[in-house]
Amino acid sequence: MSLVGKKAPVFDAPAVINGEEIVESFSLADYIGKKEVMFFFYPKDFTFVCPTEILAFQSKLEEFEKRGVQVVGCSCDTEETHLAWLLTPKNNGGIEGVTYPLVADSSKTVANNFGVLAGDWSYTEEGDLIFDGAPVAFRGTFFIDKEGVVRHETINDLPLGRNIDEMIRVVDAWHHVQEHGEVCPANWEEGKDAMQATREGVSNYLSAN
Fold this sequence. Notes:
oxidoreductase; 2 domains; single chain; 7-stranded mixed beta sheet; alpha+beta; thioredoxin peroxidase activity; 6 helices; cytoplasm; disulfide bond; Thioredoxin_domain; Glutaredoxin
């Protein structure tokens, strides 16, 4: 079920921050009342599509920060694996230079609670516990407001990389709604006309466009 309009699940998990420091207790709750959060899941460290996304978020980090948004990544790898990857140069398949937090969800509970775990536990006929599917996270992205409420989510299958510019557009649209009380139509971008959520407002917008 969608988390949009609901409080983001609370968690406390290890993470690597500033690209070099392991912390044993990290929570998105630390940002409530202070910053919005773009929280994204990726399948696995030391893979192929994942570093392109992680580095793309880093390349746009200044754009998120100037909008008051904290970027946080998460996978089901351990914090030690995160750190090793962060210390590996890009030309060797690493993500050296990434500075935003990477959460280590080795228990898979964070991914499960956000609805992005690419499988589930079940039992064999003999009663043995097994994992059915892939024990990694889908490419889920959640935009969380300052009150801890999810305002946008997308979930891509494992082979499908994200468009990071679209994540920035979502932030801009939310800020426009909050500041001007208008709603944002299809393909809206910063600087374009929005519209009032009334029959007259829609009519005026369509007439002008």
